[in-house]
Input
Amino acid sequence: MTIHGECFCGEVKYKIEGPLKNARSCHCSRCRKAFSAQASAYAEVNHEEFQWVSGEELLTYYVGKHGAGKVFCRQCGSTLCGVYQDKIHGVTLGCINGDPGVQIEKHIFVGSKAPWETLPNDGVPQYNEGPHSENVSI
Output
């Protein structure tokens, strides 16, 4: 299975030769700022299966003090993936072309969601904290 993705302007493209896993939606304040939205929707990827196809020269990497960050197109601003310790570890689901082969498995950090956000009542587990916490809301 090959998954293709691209930024908003279409200049940066990538492919993944393998499945995505652990799809989630994060509602923390940091993701709201990083993605300019109520939450981020992303899935993990095996970094060896990820490859830039075009536009790599347009990428900007932002990495915080703990080694985690994001990669975005400096031309259109689309956040394409997340990095940790210099390796691609996840991709934003919104930049994938077609069906990514996953569905959101959990909503995380709902304890710090924006006060104006209404969470879906779709039976997907909601965690007040991180993905490994046992503090489930529903």
About this structure: The helical segments are 29-35.
